[in-house]
Amino acid sequence: MLAYAGERNESESLPDAGTGVAVLQEPAGDDAFLKLASEIRGELAAARGRTEEERQQYGDTLNRAVLGYEEDRRTMMAIIQDLLAKRRIHDLPSRGRTYDSMAEAIFAEVIGMNVLELILKSREGIEEIQVVGCDIFEVRGGIPMRSPHRMQSFKDLERIQQNLVLFNNDTLNPRKRWAEVMLRDGSRVTMTGFGFTAQPTLTIRFYTVKHYELATLCRPAFETIDEPMRELILCVIRSYFNMVVIGPTNSGKTNLIKAFIAEMPGHERIVTIESRYELMLKRDFPDKNVIEYEVNEDDPPHSSKQAFKLALRQSPKRICHAEVRDEDANVYVRACTRGHEGSVTTVHVNALEDVPDAITDMCMLDGRGMNPGRLVKRIAEFVTQVGFEMALVGGKRKIVRIAEYGWEQGEVALRDWVLYNSSAGTWSFPMRVSQRAAERMRRYDPSGYRRLTERGWLG
């Protein structure tokens, strides 16, 4: 069957509307469609192949199709077309009129994402798909808008949930009413069921497929930064300041971190530690010296602490930690203060001023006797040396603040290098770089130091 599907893949694309000539022998209603879908699902789920290797190959193909691999989706579509052709069924049921063919309607029901397939067909600009019960919202530019599409019933959403968890070593049932799976491009799907939330939910968050250099973020299409800021950020990266990025969900933190990494020398070893692969550095930077860890705090041998322990033995120059958490805050602080300069992380706080205290609180949960005052000072001076705040402004993701951390008169002090004025739509540069930071720039990036001096930010 797979060989036949491959032949069809080479000779034809997905079916167009109006190609069928036969009709359903049974009434073309919901019951007939669901019965047919159930039969097709059963046939697809049955192991295929004469040998164990062939059966394993088929299982992998089905799994990858559910996860969104285009070639495997075409293979499964060809198999569905063949199964329908053997039944002499081509016409669309009443519930499938929004699809181009019966095969597409069946595919969406038993392998795909039902009506969400229509959104995924033209997902340009979509950042999230949010489903609550029957309601669907599409997030573009950080703003959720109600979709013109809608689930017909809760059961439609629950079928999608079961399709997603079936081949991904996860469950969603009365004993465990939530699940998370990953799609092909690293997008994350979070699901909840009745009993945990009032209605079943599904959120698909699409992560960056492309990466952007800092120069790209200066362009009018983005306006995340301007040219003077680009020069400043380049000097910060080349001077190996430890950096922290804050901002609400969908404010562009991931894009910014990837833009930082794009500017780092390709030979430098970078280690990333994430709870889910989101940065996808090896995909977007295949020539960089990158090691990517995916950790699971519920599995001690593969926790973030263990990942840090191994990572520090792999000679990293920089560490990119997706988010500082309670479990690994102490390890990250030690890494930043013991030779791994130029590292970057994110912290969930409301303002840059809150970062050192937040990391200190996480470190104190370790249970070891530490002086919180000394720890805050150490973090401000060595772990969070330069902070970046992201925000969504007028539908665009912007850096709204860049500040240098310091310690003055017994407390954390921030020196604002850059501030964004939303009323004027421009950035200002209110304070000069400190003498300590300027000396670091002069030592590590002499050419950048000269350019910033010419702009009046140093000296």
From TrEMBL:
Source organism superkingdom: Bacteria
Pfam families: T2SSE (PF00437)
Residue span(s) of domain Bacterial type II secretion system protein E: 225-365
Gene3D superfamilies recorded: 3.30.450.380, P-loop containing nucleotide triphosphate hydrolases (3.40.50.300)
InterPro entries: P-loop_NTPase, T2SS/T4SS_dom, T4SS_GSP_E_ATPase
Entry's Gene Ontology molecular function annotations: ATP hydrolysis activity
Family: Belongs to the GSP E family.
Name assigned to this protein: CpaF family protein
Species of provenance: Paenibacillus contaminans
Lineage: Bacteria, Bacillati, Bacillota, Bacilli, Bacillales
